[in-house]
Amino acid sequence: TIPVGVQVTRVLPAPIDAEVNWETEELDDGMIAKALDSQGTLRGFVLLGATAAKQRLALTKLVPDLIPAQV
Length: 71
Known about the structure:
Helix content: 10-25%
Strand order of the largest sheet: 1-4-3-2
Distance between the termini: 44 Å
Largest sheet: 4 strands, antiparallel
Number of strands: 4
């Protein structure tokens, strides 16, 4: 159960054509929900609360095609 008053901090929706399963982790002040495809690749996420929000950059880097590869 998510505490009352927790607001969605960040959302990166999975592509509409991607088949994903959601994996969730409850935190003291919110939750991290990850959308994973059949290969286990992160395709999107929802971060609730301050603790989860700190994971935004690290998770964003794991989503393919969002950040160009370094040359």
